[in-house]
Amino acid sequence: MLEVIVLAAGRGTRMRSSLPKVLHTLAGKPLINHVLDTARLVSAAKLHVVVGHAAELVSKLSMLTTLLHISSLSS
Q1: Is 16 a catalytic residue?
Q2: Which of 11, 14, 16, 40 does the annotation list as catalytic?
Q3: 0.85 surpassed by pTM
């Protein structure tokens, strides 16, 4: 059984933006969504996403709202 853990807790300070790193877009969708799509393509039995900085915003603006297991780290 394959389980995938996605670490999505970065602030993205080197990107010189207030937007969390995982929410910057590439090809019209947030970076985190590309990772989640790939995890689904490999048929992961469980998908865990660890969020930290701006966790509520990351959950709201990505596909995380459809996931079952989201862990939040305190900043």
Answers
A1: no
A2: 14
A3: no
Domain holding 43, by residue range, is: 3-72
Q: How many domains does the chain have?
A: 1
The burial of 22, by beta-carbon neighbours within 10 Å (0-12 exposed, 13-18 middle, 19 or more buried), is given as buried
Tokens of 69: 């297991």
Q: Match 């995982």 to its residue by tokens.
A: 22
User: Cα(19)–Cα(67) distance, rounded to whole angstroms?
Assistant: 22
What CATH number does the domain containing 54 carry? 3.90.550.10
Can you tell me which residue has the tokens 């937007």? 19
pLDDT along the chain (75 residues), means of 10: 87 83 90 89 88 82 60 50
Adjacency order of strands within the sheet including 69-72:
3-8, 46-51, 69-72
